[in-house]
Fold these 3 entries.
Entry 1:
Amino acid sequence: MATKRKLKLKSPIIGILKVIGILLLIVLGCFIFYRKQINDLKKIGYSELASKNILLKWKKEDVLEIGKNKTLNIAFESEAYKEKYFDSYSKIKYKDSKYLIENINALIKKGYNNEQITMILYHGSGEDVRKFAKRDKVRYLEEFYTTDYAKIKYYDRYVKYMDESREDEETSILLVNLDMDKEEYEDPIAVKDFSYDMLVNKHRKLEEKFQPSNLVKINKEDASDEGMKANRTAYVAFKQMKKQAESEGYHLVINSAYRDYDDQTEIMETYRKLYGDAYVEKYVLKPGFSEHQTGLAFDIGSTDTKVFANSDEYTWIVDNCYKFGFIYRFKKEYEDITGIRHEAWHYRYVGRKIAKEIYDKRLSYEEYYAMHIEK
Ligand SMILES: [Zn+2]
């Protein structure tokens, strides 16, 4: 009797336990199956979050068929994902930028096709594209944006410049990127950080308090005057160049190097007194717009000949300065772009790699900068 009672007592508990056990197994089975699906997607490059959303939206088969796709991955991570644009997401090339999916959605809505959207994304930041996507569909997309360094934010300026100047697309892009559709000194870009490839000119201004890094004193034997300073790396490069020149029988000397904002103001006023406003306006750079404030520019002379352009040193330096990281900054053929009359004596340190490219390609620094450095 006692055994029977015991069994009777046990059986409902066992039954419940069995059911719970089976349920647990089912849940575990489902979980293992779910994890396997997630892992299938992760294996081909989708994130955990994207993979979860792919399953949630019943898109696993389509995604597996496409394979790894960075844009799709971001789309499935994003709350802006739209089912109807799935195909476009999979065809638009990924760009690491803010608002990527929001921007793609907006551009599709404006009527751009997948290739055009890829093109637009490539030529601007997330912020730029966001603004661009708000305007009506533009007419001349392919005309401008097959050029690498064209910027989506300058679309209107390109159209206007081309219209007024009758230059071709590529030239218009380059010149607008260089702000040459603006007046000199008008609304300049503020250059804040020191770098060896920095560009300072009549459209790009240094602040009054800007100082180059690593300013060092120039030795008496390297300069025509005492108390000059320059950036250390640029000065070391000059000394190497001078040494090489000397070994070949040429004698270089620094006539001017780093000049701060106040020095430039002083120069301007001195010339104003000597030659008047018109001269200063034309030939003297306003404070903040001179490369000498970067500590990377040198006015170089010859110890043998008074006019540098007539010296053997000049002939030597034109073809050798790039080997030491310097460029012949204000060549005659660049006058239209630099806005500076030919200066045989002014050399700018940019580092060997850039200097060689500029020498080989015969570019002004402005052109090189617009094509290769500016983002
Ligand atoms: Zn100079």
Note: The radius of gyration is 33 Å.
Entry 2:
Amino acid sequence: MDREAFQREHGIIGRSLEMQEIVDVVQQVAPTDITVLITGESGVGKEVIARALHNASKRSKKQLVTVNCGAIPEGLIESELFGHEKGSFTSAVESRKGYFEIADEGTIFLDEIGETPLSTQVKLLRVLESGEFMKVGSSTSRTSNVRVIAATNKDLQYEVQQKKFRPDLYFRLRSVNIVVPPLRNRREDIPLLIEHLVNDFSSRNGIRFEGFTDDATEIIMNYRWPGNVRELKNAIESMMVLENGRRLRGDDVRKYLKEYQGPVADRNLPVVSNKTVEQAERELIYRALVDLKGTILELRDVILQGLPVHADATEVKAGRSNGNGTLTLDEMERRMIVNALDRNKGNRRLAATELNISERTLYRKIKEFGLQE
Ligand SMILES: Nc1ncnc2c1ncn2[C@@H]1O[C@H](COP(=O)(O)OP(=O)(O)OP(=O)(O)O)[C@@H](O)[C@H]1O
Ligand SMILES: [Mg+2]
């Protein structure tokens, strides 16, 4: 398949020399079982590359299991990765499959591998070398036939120097290393990405967009894009929604670029203009929605940092997980309630106090989640 067809099929946008080289490597190594390490700043598209590697492989009919190694608390990571036997620790009431078992015959994507604790790194090395692992609390080895793709935005060589990452694992992982450069080092990709993002967003949301003036284009092309493609995507979507699809000038665009926003930038303030009341109202509602989305994403991050929030295949089937290995908000809420009830031996008043919700809300949630005995 030629490079462009491959890019279209796998949704990899970019025509810079750097992206061309990356796509060539992806096409070459996808059909093999070689371990691939993808490195690059946050938002450059590491996950896009990982998906393409899986989807273009002979394993594409099987699962791609994504594990965010940075989001799993240290004490749980081994049982999440390798599974555990019943009774191996206090809360292990039944045995459970780990991601390596779930991903058998498919691909496992170890995202943020730089965050893996040293003690777990030895075990990862062993699976990589022999396919062997042991469930927590078990003394027999099992094997799993998985292809491993790893990603990180850390400089692993530096982590090795700092003794935070095992050199043997580092060398094993980087047999093929795909380095995705930041967007500011491949600016030719910006117009193509914008075209794609605009078309995609307008067709999904029925918003038309009249484009940018020359000075706006210049600002976009010269901006540093510290958040890379993710920041570009968010900026484009916000601009299209909040500016009602009209043609945007330089001043309009600046408002949406992080580095142009002073520390006190307040996007909640209505813009003074001669708009009709109806237009101004609509704008306020859009702004509130975009802010609300931001707040929800922040909340999600906070929750992800504090909870064992990884899901297994049964949870995906039951609709409790979004299929990316993260739990849905509903499921996180359900777990918090179950835990609070457990800790308080079923006493709803105490559990409600601990959760900082009213007893009545707790009753409603218990019913809603079918937690009643
Ligand atoms: N080359 C690309 N073509 C199309 N979309 C892209 C490309 N690169 C990134 N994107 C889009 O940008 C967003 C961020 O990409 P992605 O999640 O792959 O980044 P990442 O490198 O994994 O970031 P992080 O380190 O924060 O996890 C996604 O919405 C993705 O679809
Ligand atoms: Mg990612």
Note: Residues 3-181 form a domain with the Rossmann fold fold (CATH 3.40.50.300).
Entry 3:
Amino acid sequence: MIRDFIYLKANTVEEALDLIDQHKEDYKVICGGQSLLILMRQGLVAPEHLIDIKSVEELNYIQFDEKEGLRIGATTTHRTVELSPLVLEKFPVLVHMEENLASIQTRNWGTIGGNLCHGDPAGDPGPVFMALNGAVKIASKQKTRTLTLDEFFIDYFETVLEEGEILLEVRLPPIPPRTAVVYEKFNIIKNDQGIISVAASITLNNDGLSCNDARIVIGAAAPAPIRAKETEKLLIGEKISKGLLEKAGEKASEEADPVADIHASEEYRRHLVGVLIKKMVEKAWEQAKAQVK
Ligand SMILES: Cc1cc2nc3c(=O)[nH]c(=O)nc-3n(C[C@H](O)[C@H](O)[C@H](O)COP(=O)(O)OP(=O)(O)OC[C@H]3O[C@@H](n4cnc5c(N)ncnc54)[C@H](O)[C@@H]3O)c2cc1C
């Protein structure tokens, strides 16, 4: 049973921040409700005031600029991202990620902002945005700040968002030349959350043979999505080989910090990390190489 609450609707960012400020002693922001309503139904969250930001149209946008890159407003739904020709052209990995995220119904309601703020370590957008070197813009009535996605997630279902703050947008810089970004999750039920997920960004040198930069992110393998920084170091400066991929898989499974749950044991999750890392690094490498003339 959902406990009674006072429903308040905001139509602008200013209204949302005012309402939050007025009810800061006991409130929760709701957008698509795809994650929050489950927690409310289970009685895990029972706010006195529910502040609905789904109608804040000024946060519903996808914009691209060659210099600044892509900006996605917080109330933009997964489905809008998935169907955007602009996203398909500039950031195809996002379309692939969205096509495999939940059902169409959930993607029609669930938003990018809601997904990130829910802070689920098995969420799909977080690892992909991190691999893309993304940032988030956050605001409260008092201040606005911008943080990298690497800094945003703290722990299970916990982010850096402070009381009174809402997420406004995600910013993704343009993808550098000779770079490919790929993502895959391993799950038992199609489009369910991943038991393990991996996002990999590989940038090659001018020669098209050796790795100039790598951003490797693992989801569902720790209390929050993690950069596999030792694995990245291992790849940078190297040429691809079977041996290198093996080493990368081993290093990443050491870097992961998974738990056992009803879906998989800790050992199995570490194994999956190794398997997916090898696959994703090789795939990104091949796609980056195809861009070198
Ligand atoms: C059946 C099902 C399957 C799913 N499968 C997947 C999956 O495969 N992969 C995946 O990644 N997710 C999955 N999800 C989760 C869901 O898609 C996302 O969490 C959804 O995007 C949340 O967005 P929302 O707008 O519905 O958020 P809400 O439920 O409205 O809010 C979620 C949390 O974020 C906060 N919040 C929302 N917007 C903001 C904002 N702008 N600023 C500050 N705080 C905010 C809320 O207070 C709440 O704590 C699934 C959900 C369901 C129900």
Note: The longest strand covers residues 196-204.
